């Protein structure tokens, strides 16, 4: 899903490469592609227009830097502009007030509202050391209140006892009283959802907000619904004073464009993203990461961070230098495989690089589980030093020898060679994009 976007930008920047300066026509040509790319990433049209205008203005007016290619400069400008529009810094919850701080959760049914309520409560309990009470005001959906109680047990967070037949505003009042009397720092109110935005829902929310006077009203939206999510956000923000948005299912295929539109439409920060069904699948919103995702260039930031935890800088620089010379042989691949093992296997690595088809395919083909990494190491170990530096020497006869020596099959030897070739191609591609330093950091 990310690939066409990534390829498109690669195309643009390839054409720009080699020019001495960013002319206005260069920028306009690039921005035409950026515009299509953003639309494909599910960014709303008015937002795209504004974004492209802004980025064009910045790019054309800017002095051309000597040390980078025009393509790199455009990537940087587009990336920075995206980050800026997404709201630069992560914004945490406003809960350090006279207790109880009240957080009201709103959103459509199925958006992940109840799950997110429990996720946030868990986070506040564990990380914020807050005493949290959760209450479900959802009297429409059968068993909604029980669902929250179950999640509360899982998260070790208290829930308000259920009183059958009580209406939302009364539940809110009771919750408020309980939170005050029992010394809770935070009260989370999980309101009812609907399948569609309707007036009864909005009225109910307003009534609850009137009684509870919350510090935070968080809108929960499903990132996978793209443009629909933006329409929902727009309807809600017209009716209730939202303080922030939570985008769920960012662990799925969502292209991230909704995030950009959301911020623009509601004017409110995205505070968290949901990254899984489990209760620890919640992260503070990181504009840089989402910008990377919209650009289809992979979640480079988190990858770099993860790599930095496990990998020595000198190794990275040495590899980067070799790659700059176009050298990437079997010895390098062997080192990479070792490091991938340290980084949680190839599948973990590939999942962070949505743009890189080859690695993903290798994973999909089953070429890359952890046992396979060990076998690949054995295959390289059975090559002669000459073969390792020049894998093209490996003809049919040599392959049979290597397979025998490593206790594998010729098929597996071929798979490894194909992977080496794919990775070389990928590295050349990234190098062209100007991402050499980053790539060195990732793979070194
Ligand atoms: P509600 O109707 O808005 O309260 O939605 P729920 O909290 O019941 O969630 C609906 C479904 O979405 C459940 O199966 C959740 O496990 C799932 N869900 C919620 N958030 C996420 C997320 O961030 N990622 C994924 N993959 N699933 C999620």
Automatic annotation (TrEMBL):
It is a peripheral membrane protein. GO terms for molecular function: 7S RNA binding; GTP binding; GTPase activity. It is found in: Cell inner membrane; Cytoplasm. Keywords: Cytoplasm, GTP-binding, Hydrolase, Nucleotide-binding, Ribonucleoprotein, RNA-binding, Signal recognition particle. Its EC number is 3.6.5.4. It comes from the Bacteria. It catalyses: GTP + H2O = GDP + phosphate + H(+). GTP binds at residues 107-114, 190-194, 248-251. GO terms for cellular component: plasma membrane; signal recognition particle. Residues 269-282 form the SRP54-type proteins GTP-binding domain. Pfam families: SRP54 (PF00448), SRP54_N (PF02881), SRP_SPB (PF02978). InterPro entries: AAA+_ATPase, P-loop_NTPase, Signal_recog_part_SRP54_M_sf, Signal_recog_particl_SRP54_hlx, Signal_recog_particle_SRP54_M, SRP, SRP54, SRP54_GTPase_dom. GO terms for biological process: SRP-dependent cotranslational protein targeting to membrane. The keyword GTP-binding applies. Composed of three domains: the N-terminal N domain, which is responsible for interactions with the ribosome, the central G domain, which binds GTP, and the C-terminal M domain, which binds the RNA and the signal sequence of the RNC. PANTHER family: SIGNAL RECOGNITION PARTICLE 54K PROTEIN SRP54, SIGNAL RECOGNITION PARTICLE SUBUNIT SRP54. Involved in targeting and insertion of nascent membrane proteins into the cytoplasmic membrane. Binds to the hydrophobic signal sequence of the ribosome-nascent chain (RNC) as it emerges from the ribosomes. The SRP-RNC complex is then targeted to the cytoplasmic membrane where it interacts with the SRP receptor FtsY. Interaction with FtsY leads to the transfer of the RNC complex to the Sec translocase for insertion into the membrane, the hydrolysis of GTP by both Ffh and FtsY, and the dissociation of the SRP-FtsY complex into the individual components. NCBIfam families: ffh. HAMAP family: SRP54. Belongs to the GTP-binding SRP family. SRP54 subfamily. Part of the signal recognition particle protein translocation system, which is composed of SRP and FtsY. SRP is a ribonucleoprotein composed of Ffh and a 4.5S RNA molecule. This is Signal recognition particle protein. It comes from Sphingomonas crocodyli.
């Amino acid at each position: 899903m990310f690939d066409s976007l990534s390829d498109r930008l690669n195309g643009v920047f390839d054409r720009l490469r080699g020019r001495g300066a960013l002319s206005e026509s260069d920028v306009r040509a690039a921005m035409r592609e950026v515009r299509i790319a953003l639309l494909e990433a599910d960014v709303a049209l008015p937002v795209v227009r504004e974004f492209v205008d802004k980025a064009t203005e910045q790019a054309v007016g800017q002095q051309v830097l000597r040390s980078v290619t025009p393509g790199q400069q455009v990537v940087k400008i587009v990336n920075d502009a995206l980050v800026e529009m997404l709201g630069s810094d992560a914004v945490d919850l406003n809960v350090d007030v006279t207790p109880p701080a009240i957080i009201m959760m709103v959103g459509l049914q199925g958006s992940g509202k109840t799950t997110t309520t429990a996720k946030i409560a868990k986070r506040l309990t564990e990380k914020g050391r807050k005493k949290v009470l959760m209450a479900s005001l959802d009297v429409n959906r059968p068993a909604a209140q029980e669902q929250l109680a179950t999640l509360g047990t899982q998260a070790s967070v208290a829930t308000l006892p259920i009183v059958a037949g009580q209406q939302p505003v009364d539940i809110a009042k009771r919750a408020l009283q309980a939170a005050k009397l029992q010394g809770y720092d935070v009260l989370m109110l999980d309101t009812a959802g609907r399948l569609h935005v309707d007036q009864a829902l909005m009225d109910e929310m307003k009534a609850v907000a009137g009684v509870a006077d919350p510090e935070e009203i968080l809108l929960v939206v499903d990132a996978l619904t793209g443009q629909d999510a933006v329409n929902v956000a727009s309807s809600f923000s017209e009716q209730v004073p939202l303080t922030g948005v939570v985008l769920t299912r960012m662990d799925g295929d969502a292209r991230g464009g909704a995030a950009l539109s959301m911020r623009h439409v509601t004017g409110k920060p995205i505070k968290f993203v949901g990254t899984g069904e489990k209760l620890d699948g919640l992260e503070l919103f990181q504009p840089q990461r989402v910008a990377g995702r919209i650009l289809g260039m992979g979640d480079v930031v988190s990858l770099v961070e993860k790599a930095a935890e496990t990998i020595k800088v000198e190794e990275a620089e040495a590899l980067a230098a070799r790659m700059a010379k176009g050298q990437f042989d079997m010895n390098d691949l062997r080192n990479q495989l070792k490091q991938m093992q340290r980084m949680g296997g190839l599948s973990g690595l590939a999942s962070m690089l949505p743009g890189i088809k080859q690695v993903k395919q290798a994973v999909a083909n089953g070429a890359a589980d952890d046992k396979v990494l060990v076998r690949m190491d054995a295959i390289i170990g059975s090559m002669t030093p000459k073969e390792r530096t020049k894998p093209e020497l490996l003809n049919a006869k040599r392959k049979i020898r290597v397979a025998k020596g490593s206790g594998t099959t010729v098929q597996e030897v071929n798979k490894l060679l194909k992977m080496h070739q794919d990775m070389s191609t990928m590295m050349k591609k990234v190098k062209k994009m100007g991402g050499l330093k980053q790539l060195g950091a990732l793979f070194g």
